[in-house]
User: Fold these one by one.
Assistant:
Number 1:
Amino acid sequence: MMGIRRADFDYGNTRLRARRGELLNDAAYERLLGQDIDGVLEALTDTAYVPAGEAVGRADGLQRLHMAIRLRLANSLEQMRSFYSGPARQLVDALLSRFDIQNVISVLRARTQPQTSVDDALAALVPVGWLVEPLASEILRSRELAGVVNLLALRTPYREQAGVLRAAFSEYERTGDLAALERHVVTDHAARLAGRLAAAGRDGATLLRFEQREVDERNLVVALRLRDAIASGAESPPPSADTALAGGQVPPAVLMKVVSAPTSAAIVGTVGGLGGGIWRAALERWMATGDLRTLHRTFERAAIADATVLFVTGDPLGIDVPLAFTTAIQVEARNLRLLGEAAVRGIPPEVVRAELIWPDGPA
């Protein structure tokens, strides 16, 4: 069990630090800006994307780029997993379980939208973890959500998740509320992950801190959206602790205060000092504009910066390095998808520049 002996990250972290040099840097993104899709693909031939690019055969344009991105992401993360064993491997598995829950939600959404083909649904999955080919195709061949839920419950390696899937689907059959179904599944995952990391003690502390931060920031943005909806007179569910994901540090009672706060300044006063004050500056900017999209973007970018800098500032013999690498390779995939879409749609480079996440800091 995790927590009985210290996890040994030495070998794996050494391998990951060596692979950090394969990640695209600011200069690489500068070369990609303004290229058409063929130019983007050609520029990537001098990078670690060469094997993935060759593996996708004769696929054209944007499709080829997306396939190369998925292969690079999958290969990098599964190879990272293979570098570790014992308690360290268990913590890396906990880190990578974010893709498991992302894939489960993607499959559920695909089968509530009859127009979504199996190929399109598969393209939306991250090929990491347990819900990959050929199992993913087997599950998606069921055209009814009931069949998909049953297969997911039968094949998931997490016994607790199987029960939650079945219970949540029973409620969905009664209410038709897909958001509630997803929330039950994601909440179960977040609570189980927090428990696993807490049981790992010091070895899991960094990952637990980032997972709690992600949950808290998600819950805060949801509470602010609910507050806006109520203020606008829109039909909304009543404020309830049920809308909050478990696994964070901000109590539901505090989130309810956010929903009912009379002013933006009161919200900043209520939660601005939480998490060591990391939210205060972002919330003060939000207070001036009321722009929740920008607030969410600010939270996301700050968390990415804080995770990737762990390559340098984190524990060199802990989960910090796998967390930094996983975050960096996800950012790389996001940036390349953005550059590909911009290439085929003719989006101006200055617009794309503002949306990229620059690994060496703001452009």
Number 2:
Amino acid sequence: MSDLHPDPSSPRDDAADMIERLRAENAELKLELEQTRRTSQRYLQNVAHQLTAPLGAIKWSIEGLKDAEVPMPRKIKLLSSIYSQATILVHLIKNFTLMSNLEADHELGQFRDKPEPVDAFRLAVNLANDFQPQAAETGKKIIVDEISFTIALKSKSVLMVKNLVAQALSNLLENAVKYADFATTISVTAERFVPVADKAPVLGISVMSTGMPITPEEIAELCNRGFRGKAARQRVPAGTGIGLYLAKRVMTLHQGTLVIRAKAKESRFTLVFPLDRLV
């Protein structure tokens, strides 16, 4: 006598289920690809805008220098503006190049270049000097606290890949100059501190500024690639959101991290190194 009830797990039913799952997975992949395409398009548009702005400013300033009717005091200001915009341009290009290099490295902890002992105070001073003209345009100034570096470093150097850490610190300075309030002071300091109770002390190099408030929720997201806080987007609509992401990745390569602290309008971004990198 034949079985009148088909097997619920027949090959036909299994094939139908598999086809349905494949359709669902295909639809999900299409959605992810579309989201990736839109994100990449927005990113490229931001990159193009950020590169175009300083190039346009440099071109306009050069045209002013060529004008015989422009007085010399004005030309001196135009030269300062050219230097400032060129600094921004170089900084942006370095960021994009660094991101490509870091994204190509699937294994963190492996340096492309050999770490070397670096005078962290001198590095901070040189980078601060690079951004001084840009800061001065909006009445801001950058101060590197030599005493704090002397106390924290104790005449020692920091073992690092100089160009990577220089770019990470440049990202913090560039953000501070961009987002700090008009006519305020940006401070660069160094300190030894204990990040978590019962843990070993670390070395921190911080950039502090007064400007836009940062919420606790935003702090948790700031190091994610492409993320920008609400106040930052309002003040500077164009931006790639990769500066802090890169800084965090660079510090991870140095067995450290990036710590962000904020209270009201004051913020502190700290590059953290383990003390065993002092040599």
Number 3:
Amino acid sequence: MKVNIPKQTTDTTFLAKRWKRFALVIALFAVGVVFFLILNVALGSINIPLTDTVKTIFKVQDNTTYQDIIWQIRLPRALGALLSGAALAVSGLLLQVFFRNPIVGPHILGISSGATFAVALAMMGSYLIGMTAVNPITLSLASFIGAMVVMVIVIAVASKVRDIITLLVIGLMTGYVASALSSFLIAFAQSENVFRFVIWTMGSFSGITWSEVYILAGGGVVLMLGSYLMAKPLNAFLLGENYARSMGVNIKLFRYLVIFLSCALAAIVTAFAGPVAFVGLAVPHLARLALGTSDNRILIPTSILAGAGITLLCDLMARMLFSPVELPVSATTALFGAPLVIFFLIKGKTTI
């Protein structure tokens, strides 16, 4: 005899399976973050046993041989990579939802280029007025202003241009203009003053200090929490402005908040690590594919974990592939991100 299952029971079963999948994916990404964090601290020019690494991190033992290496060099760098990857992933996700386009990210729209120009101005301009160093807060503020200026330009154009391809091209051109202005600064600066900036533009988490980790943690966590609190308006916006407005979303305020959050997240990372490409573009796609949903209530925390884990892996590859030579971190993130985005485009998995 055929048994008819009530619709509510079927829906409940489906929801239970879906939430089990969400929990499993989030748990796997969380384990990956912890695993790659420990590997980043343990591996290097001097390999530290994993047991000693874990005990030293959690201060179970005070190993004088490894303590300074772990606490003064490797752990700040690993935490910087973790926080930066999480921030870039959320920044990319916000922009993709805002433009309802899967190939938008801070790097493609020129936000990173704008932040780079502002940092170049802060770094090399400071030498012109006699300053020998620029503190992290100044760099972070300059990076944010540069990113904001570029994003405001792109948004102003977006209000007049409906074709998304045209908008992306304009974003790219704005980025090229910012890059050209940075090149002008380099051309007129003294060679010794350019060296630090050139190294910075290659993208690296080396040399990150605890003070910079505190800024990344304080600013990044607040901004990511703000992004998560906007999950419901983001979900409504995915269905169109009219639907979002009918659900009580203040569209004008929503636009300002998304611009602010995405720019600030990208800017704070660019200030300390330089331009890091493809994390903000590729990670949201990976999170959507793993979860099988575009619900930002689940997608944002998953993107945070995925971005953190992947950036830790890419930083480890940058240090270890050709050791003792260290690759720019943007090289390894591009090696990971570019093939992934191409795969999504070919397979048609780039929907929001």
Number 4:
Amino acid sequence: MHQKTHARVSARSDRGGAARPRTRGAARNWVTPVAAALAVAALALSGCAQASTTPAANDSAAQTEETETVARPAAPEGELPTEFQAQLQEALERTMAEDNVPGAAAGVWIPEEGSWTAAAGLADIEEQIAVTTDMSWPIRSITKSYTVTLLLQLVADGTLNLDDTISEYVDGVTNGDRITLLQLANMSSGVAEYANEAFFAEFMKDPTHVYSLEELNAAALGEPEQFAPGTEYVYTNTNTNLLGAVIEAATGQEYADVLAERILKPLGQSGTHYILDVEEWTEPHAVGYQPDPETQHMSDSSQHTSILGAAGALVSTLDDGRVWATTLGSGALITPKLQEQRQAGHPIERPPYDLYAVGMGETGGWVGHNGEGLGFTAATFYRPETGASIVVYMNASNIPDRSHPADQAFRALAAVLADSGL
């Protein structure tokens, strides 16, 4: 058994003093009761499917493999053929029209074939600002794939094991002595969702409060289990935020610092940031929109990112999305055995994947991750067979029919590639 030098996180945080309060106002950073209700719906994504067996623990041999030193992967040289680009543009705009999406940025990169990037529609309806390909976008739950990659890096270097229990790192988790880190990573832990009505009732008392990761996790501690660990799969943000706490406990560093040191800096991800205080989100970036539950009118969404934590607080750019699609899909930052294990998937109701695995989803032979909520959707996928990548960012979420616009656009773009034999 490996040695642990981490300190466990306390069971409850001091809600009054753990996080840094914001001192500046923002024109678009307000929260109304309607926005709070939408936020509950956006964050409390759930779905389940029966699991026939408890997920297997990691092979300890994977810890002895070494990961290769990685550099920022270059984009394919040249542009895709004009006619092909027109087909991709039509697929993107068709999806936008179907879901009433104000604006989008998208890209397709195919090795030895070329690239296509596009900006369509409006980043800001009120100000009539057009989308550009260099804008920053919230990538929401794609953040989970970064967090789980950090976890797997710590497994690879022997700092922790996937069969460790969460109680070894965080106190107060229901069934904590039975829930493994792997079960948190593949959404089979059964932990309660922190983003519940009680949490948002507290949030509404001070919508300007910047939440710490510890505070988010505290909202779920001691809550009843959703199911026995390893018996079902339910997509829950708490799973990943607890893993964020594990990363902090195991390294003795803040999550943002570990992320920068192990992923962002090595890959040159200068446009990707872990944003808790929305005031630190620099221009240019889009405004998020979601339909009012009563009128269905597309309204500005709250941009309060700190309530997402290690499960969804990252913002990124289109080209950084390309880099992450390739890195995540190829497993460049972890060992081959761990990459193979992270791709062992299972059905899950939501988000929209064919299978969900260990911080990674699979759809039609493409692997990657989606993100959704608070006015934005995002999709970042890679096809191992060809090395192709597709990234889509859109400023609309919570569509009434539960459509995921960015995922729908990804599928439409992937269909164009399939029809062309790519």
